[in-house]
Write a structure and sequence with these properties.
Blueprint (H helix, E strand, L loop, with lengths): L2 E4 L6 H10 L2 E4 L2 E4 L4 E4 L10 H13 L3 E3 L3 H11 L13 H4 L5 E3 L4 E3 L5 H7 L7 H7 L5 H11 L2 E3 L14 E3 L11 H4 L15 H4 L12 E3 L11 E2 L2 E3 L4 H4 L3 E4 L11 E3 L1
Parallel strand pairs: 1-4, 4-5, 7-10, 10-12
Antiparallel strand pairs: 1-13, 2-3, 6-7, 8-9, 11-12, 13-14
Helix pairs in contact: 5-7
């Protein structure tokens, strides 16, 4: 099986239509299909921010039902499920009919040749969450407690591994952030904050070195393991999306108006040549 991977769509249905057409898919009465029997793989965050999350949900679900797509949960889908479980308002009432489908989607995919997770293939968290689905009441009860091991594991794989930042540090939009996301696949010992953040952040204080406890949660991903595809990180255009066997497909679609994808070629190492956008 060959796969074409899609980054965070965030309700931008027009950009999704444009990208899947570039990838060789056609629209049918029920979703998308490829003449060469390829499958789409979505890395999560189908919803919120953009103008037409409902059309994205409807079309991706139909494609999935026809066997032409795989879908993983993003932090936006999981957050919506958690709100619904706690009987709190969800981002849109239009999402409600889709919740039974969303709660049965996997938290990650471990396929024959590739792995897919929304933010980080954090090894111990993956082990803890293997076989778990959001439709399980006991699991959702656990993730509603901020101190539970399952909640921490879900946060790491869907939101990334984070560290508290020194001084004043700003993101790409000039917003001061108390925490930054880490290059979770690398050994970060002996590196400054300016070298370990993904995406990069800005501020003189980032020349400082983190204390050991700030990066203790990082579990480097072996370079000999299968390629991993993620979204989530809202990368600026100049930030490399392919880093060894880890590829990030989130280029901040809402801000940059580009939806990123990756076309898989059997047996090839991850390559920038296989990236494309709407």
């Amino acid at each position: 099986m060959y796969y074409d991977l899609i980054g965070d769509v965030h309700g931008h249905f027009d950009l999704l239509e444009r990208l899947v057409e570039k990838l060789g898919y056609t629209r049918t009465r029920r979703g998308y299909e490829h003449r060469e029997d390829r499958k789409l793989v979505f890395v999560g965050d189908l919803i919120n921010r953009g103008p037409d999350s409902l059309s994205v949900l409807k079309t991706v679900k139909e494609t999935w039902e026809e066997g032409n797509a795989l879908v993983t949960l993003g932090n936006h889908e999981f957050g919506t499920l958690r709100l619904a479980f706690m009987n709190k308002p969800i981002p849109s009432p239009d999402y409600k009919p889709f919740l039974p489908w969303i709660e049965n989607l996997p938290l990650f995919l471990d396929l024959d040749e590739i792995r897919v997770v929304h933010a980080a293939w954090h090894l111990s968290s993956i082990d803890l969450l293997t076989g778990v689905r959001a439709c399980e009441k006991s699991f959702m009860q656990a993730v509603c407690r901020s101190d539970s091991s399952h909640r921490k594991a879900v946060d790491r794989i869907l939101k990334g591994v984070k560290a508290t930042l020194p001084g004043i540090a700003k993101d790409r939009f000039g917003i001061v952030r108390p925490k930054g996301r880490l290059r979770w696949w690398e050994n970060l010992r002996g590196k400054s904050f300016s070298e370990i953040l993904f995406p990069p952040m800005y501020g003189d204080s980032l020349q400082a070195f983190p204390q050991g406890h700030e990066i203790d949660a990082v579990e480097p991903y072996p370079t000999t393991e299968k390629p991993v595809f993620v979204g989530h990180y809202c990368l600026e255009p100049q930030i490399p999306k392919v880093n060894g066997n880890v590829t990030c497909l989130d280029g901040c679609v809402t801000c940059d108006k580009r939806l990123w994808g990756y076309t898989q070629v059997d047996g090839e190492e991850p390559s920038r040549a296989n990236l494309l956008h709407s």
